[in-house]
Known about the structure:
The chain is mainly beta. The chain has helices at 77-80, 102-105, and strands at 20-27, 33-34, 43-44, 55-63, 71-75, 81-84, 97-100, 106-110, 114-123, 133-138, 141-147, 153-160, 162-169, 176-183, 188-196.
Amino acid sequence: MLDLQNGRADLLADVEVPVGTYTQMRLVVTQGTVELKDGRPPFVLTVPSGEQSGIKLQFTFTIEEGAETTLLLDVDLSRAFRPVPAGRIEDPDTIRQFKFQPAFAMRLVNLLEAGSVSGAVTDEAGAPLADASVTAFDADEEVTSTSTEDDGTYVLAGLPAGEYRLEFSAASYQDAEVEGVEVTVGEETPSGEVALAAE
C-alpha cells in the first residue's frame, strides 16, 4: 500500500451497480500483513469482521442512469495500523503486533467532486526531503496525509473543494504549516515549495 500514494492508485473493482442512492459500502478483507524494515517476519493483521460482515464505510453517493461514478478509497496508513504496545515507540523491537483500525483511517471520495494539492518539501539549503509527512486539515479535522517522494514532491488527492491547512513534518526538522490552500473540483492546486528548518 505504500506504493499507492501521491496520486497513484490501483483498481479494486469495475462493476455495474443499479441506479440509486447508496449510504454504505462494505469491503471484505480476507488477510493482510505489516512488514517492518528491520527484517522481522511480517505481522499478520486481524481484521475486525473483515471476512464476515466486512469493513463498513459510511458514505452517500448516487448512481445515475448511463453515467460512470469513480470512487477513491483513501487509506491513511499513519492511522490505519496501531502498534501494540501503543504510544511513542522508542524501540521498534518492543512491538508485538499491529491492530488494524479501518474506521479511523479509510474514507470514500467521489473523484468528480474532488481536487488535489501538490508541492515539494526541502531543507533550508533547497535539497529535497524524502519521507516527510504532509497532512491536510479542514479546520482542526485531519482529512488525509501522505509522505514525500525521493525528490521531495507530494500529491494529496481526493480532497473535496474547500480551504485547507497543510502541516509538514520530518525527523530532525522543525514542523511547518501553510494555511489557506484552496482546492477546486477537478483541479490540482500547486502549494509551492516548503523548506523545513533543522532542529
